[in-house]
Design a protein that fits this description.
alpha+beta, 4-stranded antiparallel sheet, 526 residues, 17 strands, 24% strand
Length: 526
């Protein structure tokens, strides 16, 4: 705790005024005047380390008030506390976005998430946003080199294409400061990238005073880890500049400029910095969802799971008026109805297979996942975990109801379907059966490589239901009851597929519970 010189009360950093403010007498102080002169010259500062007993996640603060929940795994527990010496960062970007503004931005985002669990919109839950300074390495990259770039220019002369070769020579010079990468193995790279960039021009010299009232994550990634990335970013910027310059305007380089300049760039410095993040976690059994907001710009990224009950209820509310419209404008014969539900079942299972592919890619590259050893062959594809995949669920709803709607309002189409019901029925059920069989085989292989499983592959039930439907279409029984039974069988299988689609979507939209102790001191991309 930093004491007020006037009354001895607790001083905290006030975002609105960018000053230290006493929570008792409301007196304001400059953050740099509070720190003792002798402390400012030291390479270390004294702080309280809070460690989660469940996941091993660590945060620290100059305050000594006990933390009662873990920001990373969402556990409601008293974090163990110890006094420690931490290496002083070089720079810091103080919080600019207040907690109230942060909560408003999050609530605005959640208004669009109509299927999100109610807890995510609970004011008491939203109040659990915690201000955490995340460690970053800020690189300075310079280039001062003679260049020699082969290039060519092609022109048309009569019936010939004439190519002229050139050699562009000269001297290139550039300087970049503030190319940043997060320095914490507990902070997923996908999260840090999704709320970037930060305006590094507003970095200030670090003082422990800025931490009062906030927390900070520990830095455990070596600065050499991102040197190659920093040179690559600078090389891309160099290529943009030189390719649009007057010298290069009419010439096409024979080599990739970004790689050429990357090889000539040199990292001349790596400053330890701290960037502000508003952080909140939502835990559901063995999964956790994060909401993060850039504490300087207000840019937001959220993992948004779906509440199955809300989604099913929403589907029913849409189904009711469509059912009434269908009865008012058209009547589908049993064979046509069976064809339509077969196509819908096929579409749902194809989407399910696609969903499993996304999950497999995400889980194989999750930076803080205990399932880090789960891979799909040798493939490692980065998937933005904070990306919103809810369009998949909306697409399912459209597929459920759009085809009957089209038939209802285009009577000629309904008539044509009825007159060719046998041919269409056999073709549609066979296509649906084969496509579902292929999709289920692919998804089953991917599911078998994952450590988590959520019951049987729904494609199995859809294959059985579609197989029965195909036999009914082939035999052509005289009683409509057989067709309606097949429709009911497919709808039940589709409903099960829909429920499983939501369950697996929630896996895609959330993350495994972290085990921070496994990654401390390591490269979070390893």
């Amino acid at each position: 705790m930093i004491q007020c010189p006037n009354c001895g009360g607790n001083l905290v950093f006030d975002i609105s005024s960018q000053q230290m403010m006493c929570d008792h007498c409301q007196t304001q102080f400059d953050p740099y005047t509070i720190e003792k002169a002798e402390d400012a010259e030291k390479d270390e500062f004294e702080t309280n380390i809070f460690t989660c007993p469940q996941c091993g996640g660590e945060i620290y603060s100059t305050d000594n008030s006990a933390a009662n929940f873990c920001s990373y795994c969402g556990a409601s527990t008293i974090l163990t506390q110890r006094l420690s010496k931490e290496k002083r960062p070089g720079y810091i970007i103080p919080f600019k976005i207040t907690k109230e503004a942060c909560k408003n931005a999050y609530q605005k985002r959640m208004k669009k998430a109509i299927f999100a669990p109610g807890e995510l919109k609970d004011p008491k839950y939203i109040d659990s946003f915690r201000g955490i300074y995340m460690p970053f390495w800020s690189y300075s990259v310079d280039m001062d080199s003679d260049i020699s770039i082969p290039a060519h220019n092609t022109s048309r002369e009569g019936d010939y294409d004439v190519t002229t070769n050139y050699l562009i020579t000269g001297h290139a010079s550039s300087k970049y400061k503030g190319i940043s990468h997060d320095a914490s193995s507990t902070f997923d790279d996908n999260i840090s990238e999704s709320i970037s960039p930060y305006d590094v021009k507003n970095m200030q010299v670090f003082s422990p005073s800025f931490l009062s009232g906030f927390y900070a994550d520990t830095s455990d990634v070596d600065p050499h880890t991102y040197i190659d990335n920093a040179k690559e970013v600078a090389g891309i910027e160099d290529s943009y500049y030189y390719s649009s310059s007057v010298t290069m305007n009419d010439l096409v380089p024979d080599i990739p400029l970004a790689n050429y300049f990357k090889q000539r760039n040199q990292v001349v410095g790596a400053d330890s910095t701290m960037f502000p993040v508003w952080f909140m976690s939502y835990r559901k059994k063995d999964r956790v969802a994060y909401a993060t907001i850039n504490g300087q710009t207000g840019k937001i990224a959220c993992d948004t799971p779906v509440e199955p009950k809300k989604y099913i209820l929403g589907s029913l509310l849409i189904a009711l008026p469509i059912f009434l419209l269908l009865n008012a404008f058209a009547t589908l014969i049993p064979k046509t109805l069976l064809s339509l539900v077969a196509i819908i079942a096929m579409a749902i299972n194809i989407l399910f297979s696609y969903q499993i592919s996304l999950i497999a890619k995400k889980e194989s590259t999750n930076a803080i996942s205990p399932n880090n050893d789960v891979k799909i062959g040798d493939e490692k594809v980065a998937v933005d975990a904070s990306k919103d995949y809810s369009w998949i669920l909306y697409l399912v709803m459209i597929l459920f109801y759009s085809i009957p709607m089209v038939c209802a309002f285009i009577p000629s189409l309904t008539t044509n379907l009825a007159s060719n019901a046998k041919i269409i029925g056999l073709g549609s059920t066979l296509i649906a059966l084969v496509a579902t069989l292929i999709g289920s085989t692919i998804s089953s292989k991917k599911i078998s490589k994952l450590k988590f499983k959520k019951g049987l592959n729904p494609g199995i039930f859809s294959i059985i239901a579609l197989g029965v439907a195909f036999l009914v279409m082939l035999i052509q029984p005289a009683f409509d009851l057989f067709y309606y039974f097949s429709v009911l069988l497919i709808l039940v299988a589709s409903l099960y597929s829909l429920i499983k689609l939501i369950e697996y979507y929630n896996i895609l939209a959330t993350r495994p519970l972290p085990q921070m102790s496994m990654y401390k001191g390591g490269d979070d991309r390893a």
